Amino acid sequence: MKTLRMIALAGLFAAPLSMADVVVIAHPDGPDNLSESDVRDLYLNRSKAATPFEIAEGSEVRAEFHEWITGRSNSQLQSFWAEQTFTGEGQPPAEVSDSARMVDEVAATPNSVGYADPADVDDSVSVILKR
């Protein structure tokens, strides 16, 4: 019983270490005062205030971002966008291959937002939210 408690306790402390760091980034001349709610609205097709970009499925950074901002899993996002597309209400954000490419794309696209691993972020973009 003591061993099970120790394993459970170790799991609680290890879980935050396994999460990817993620920041929300924007084009330097783009939106710089977005709240978590504003970013959620962009990624759930409720706002057109900026152009969001998405990292391709399978990325730990993508999973962490959506857990934080939209509160949705990958399968929930797939269902959401299937419905949005089917009803004609919207299309999912354009995808990039990885976090480094996200930084490049946001830096090159005025009025755009994205998310990235902080290790990939440079001064070509603005960090607007940190987890």
Please give the structural blueprint.
Elements: H1 2-18, E1 23-26, H2 36-43, E2 51-55, H3 60-69, H4 74-87, E3 94-96, H5 99-108, E4 112-116, E5 126-130
Parallel strand pairs: 2-3, 2-4
Antiparallel strand pairs: 1-4, 1-5
Organism: Halovibrio salipaludis
Signal peptide: 1-20
Keywords: Signal
Count of DSSP-assigned helices: 5
Distance between the termini: 35 Å
Average residue-wise pLDDT: 90
CATH topology heading: D-Maltodextrin-Binding Protein, domain 2
Q: Which spans have pLDDT < 50 for at least 5 consecutive residues?
A: 12-18
Largest sheet: 5 strands, mixed
Main sheet: strand order: 3-2-4-1-5
Share of residues in strands: 15-25%
| CATH architectural name | 3-Layer(aba) Sandwich
Q: Which structural class should the secondary elements be placed in? A: alpha/beta
CATH C-level class is Alpha Beta
Query: What integer value in Å does the Rg equal?
Result: 16 Å
H/E series: HEHEHHEHEE
Total domains: 1
Query: Would you identify the CATH H-level superfamily?
Result: Periplasmic binding protein-like II
**Number of DSSP strands?**
5
Shape: globular
Outline the structure in words:
- 45% of the residues lie in helices and 17% in strands.
- It has helices at residues 2-18, 36-43, 60-69, 74-87, 99-108, and strands spanning 23-26, 51-55, 94-96, 112-116, 126-130.
- The chain has one domain: 3-Layer(aba) Sandwich (D-Maltodextrin-Binding Protein, domain 2).
- With 131 residues, it is α/β, with parallel strands linked by helices.
- The protein is globular, with a radius of gyration of 16 Å.
- The chain is built from five helices and five strands.
- The protein has a five-stranded mixed sheet, with helices on both faces.
- It comes from Halovibrio salipaludis.
